[in-house]
Amino acid sequence: MPGLGTLINIVAILVGSAAGVLFGARLPDRTHRTVTDALGLVVLVIGGLNVAAVEDPGWKLAVGNSAPLLIVLGALLIGGVIGSLVGIESRVEVLGGWLQRRLAGETGDEARARFIEGFVAASLLFCIGPLAILGSLSDGLGHGIDQLALKSVLDGFAAMGFAAALGWGVSASAIPVGVWQGSWTLAAVLAGSLLPVALVAAITATGGVLLLGIGLRLLQVRQIAVADMLPALLIAPLLTLAVQAVV
Description:
Elements: H1 4-24, H2 29-51, H3 57-63, H4 67-86, H5 88-104, H6 109-128, H7 130-140, H8 146-166, H9 174-191, H10 197-218, H11 232-246
C-alpha cells in the first residue's frame, strides 16, 4: 500500500517523542543541553557524509568533474534568495507557534521558543535527509518500504533525544514529515520512474549542507535560517539537468 512507509515513520516520531518527553522530564537542564549538543554533533557527521556526494562518479560523469560543487553552491544561493523572499523560516516558526498553542497549551515566551525550536529543528532534520525522498519514491513505485523502515527507526531514536531536550514540539514534526514524504510518494505513483543517479546525488549533497546548518543551530554556533534554503533541494536537480544539457 503506497504511503505505508510514511505512516510507520509518523508513528515512530510520535512514539519516540512521547518517550523522550517522559524520560527528559526527569533530567536537569545541564543534561538537556548535553543531549542537544550530542545531537548537533551527530547531525554534523550525517551532513558531512551526505555532502561527500559531490564526489559521486555518476554525477561527475553527467555534468563534469568541477560542476557538482558549483551546482550545490548555486542551488543554495538561488534557493536561499527564494526562501528568504517567501519567508519560509518565519512561516515555519509561525506554524510552530500555532501548533504550540493548539497542542501543548504551554504559556510563556520560554515555553513557546522551546516548542518552536523543537518543531523546526526536528522537521528539518527528518525531511531533509535523502532517505526521506528516496524512501518515499521507492514506496510509491511499489519497490518496498525498506528505506523508510530504516528511516523510521533512526527518526524514532532521534525524536527521543530531541524531545528529551526540547519537549513536545518534536512530536509536531510528524505533520510536515507526512506532507513532505506523502507528496514524494504520490509523485512516484504518478511518474512511475526513479530519479537518475545524478539527480539523487545533487539532492543528497545539497541536503547534506542543510544538515550542517541544522547541526550548527543545535550547537548554538549560529541560528542559520535553514528553512529559507529548502528550495535548494529542488533547484539542485534542476541545475544538474541544465548543466547536463549543455555539457
